[in-house]
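Severity: low
Component: inverse-folding endpoint
Summary: output formatting inconsistent between runs
Steps to reproduce: submit the following structure tokens with default settings.
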């Protein structure tokens, strides 16, 4: 699994002019699922994400995690994170999980975040979305599981 995360002061996802998920301060998570991914990998990725120290403390150092700040997540499915661009001019998505598997693992990731008490908003799986964000930093990082 891959998660491209961006620290934001606000973010939202819209489908057909309707806001489907909106947060204030927190992390925008673009989540990609690979064919080999499992629920265990979704949980491992979430574990890493929740304790990653990307928020500033009073001294201005990145010493605080999402769990420390109590901020929120906006999770948006992003199959294009597994777009291969080594050859040709059109990305290949052979490594990306098929929609049924990706949906199940995306929902598992979101459900686990909510079960852990994290305010979690989402986009709409497989929908064309407008994702708007106000970056805070900028702080943008890529997280990957072993299968990466």
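Observed output (run 2 of 3):
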């Amino acid at each position: 699994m891959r998660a491209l995360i961006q620290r934001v002061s606000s973010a939202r996802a819209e489908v057909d002019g309707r806001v489907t998920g909106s947060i204030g301060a927190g992390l925008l998570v673009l989540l990609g699922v690979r064919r080999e991914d499992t629920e265990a990998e979704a949980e491992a990725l979430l574990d890493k994400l929740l304790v990653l120290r990307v928020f500033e403390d009073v001294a201005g150092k990145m010493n605080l995690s999402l769990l420390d700040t109590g901020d929120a997540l906006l999770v948006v499915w992003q199959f294009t994170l597994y777009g291969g661009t080594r050859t040709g001019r059109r990305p290949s998505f052979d490594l990306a999980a098929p929609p049924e598997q990706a949906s199940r693992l995306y929902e598992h990731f979101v459900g686990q975040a909510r079960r852990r008490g994290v305010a979690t908003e989402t986009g709409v799986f497989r929908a064309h979305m407008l994702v708007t964000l106000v970056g805070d930093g900028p702080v943008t990082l890529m997280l990957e599981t072993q299968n990466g």
